[in-house]
Amino acid sequence: MAVYTEVGFDEADRLVRRLGLGALITSVPALRWGVKLLGVAYMLWLAWKLAGAGQMSQVDASRLNVTFWQGVSLQFVNIKAWMLALTLTAGWVVNAAGQPASNPGQRLAIICGVMVVFAFSSNFVYALIGSLLRQWLAQGTRLLWFNRALALVLIATALWMLTV
Questions:
Q1: Which of 54, 70, 147, 163 has the fewest Cβ atoms within 10 Å of its own Cβ atom?
Q2: Inter-residue contact 74 to 3 (CB < 8 Å)
Q3: Are 128 and 154 contained in the same domain?
Q4: Per-residue buried b or exposed e for 74-97, using 16+ beta carbons within 10 Å of the residue's own CB
């Protein structure tokens, strides 16, 4: 579902830019405030829903059966992975202090090694903390209070958005 959401958001973002809606929204203060208030209202609604969530959701195990190659192919539609790859390539692999790099192959090998180590270690830590947190949150009303704390953070973010 998250992949479809990311792809859908990316397509919507491109459409908004192509139609010039971003420039229109920033140049018309009333429209800008309207969009901002809609976003804040949505965030407050999400906070309200989150604050009342006190049970862990159950996931259908058959939906979690993703093979290694399916996971690899999924990265080709992961916009965050593409942005990271493009940024690293343009900013470090082919560029050395503003000049073309004399050793882009070596730089690519270094960055690939670093990113593999980072990817495995960060995903492992994320999964470990998530597993431990899930067990801890499953006891008593911890999940409800955790969600309420996160809802307060979401409310604070929404209120901050009104000031920028």
A1: 163
A2: yes
A3: no
A4: eeeeeeeeeeeeeebeeeebeeee
Q: Mean of the per-residue pLDDT values for the chain?
A: 84
The total domain count for the chain is 2
- Residue 146's nearest CA partner among 158, 134, 161 is 134
Q: Could you tell me which of 143, 145, 155, 152 has the C-alpha nearest to residue 57?
A: 143
Residue 56 has pLDDT above 50, yes or no: yes
Q: Is residue 120 part of a domain?
A: yes
Residue 155 CA to residue 160 CA, distance in Å, equals 9
Q: Which of the two residues, 16 and 154, has the higher pLDDT score?
A: 154
What is the span of the domain harbouring residue 40?
1-56+143-164
**Which CA distances in Å does 164 have to 30, 43, 134, 159, 161?**
15, 16, 35, 10, 5
Q: Decide: helix, strand or coil at residue 99.
A: strand
Average of per-residue pLDDT across 108-125: 91
Query: What region, left, alpha or beta, does residue 58 occupy, with left being phi > 0 and alpha being psi -120 to 50 degrees?
Result: beta
Residue 11 lies in a domain: yes
Cα 60 off chain centre by: 23
Quote the CA–CA distance of 99 and 57 in Å, as a whole number. 52
Single pTM value for the model: 0.57
Q: Using CA atoms of 59, 62, 64, 69 in order, give the dihedral in degrees to the nearest 10.
A: -170
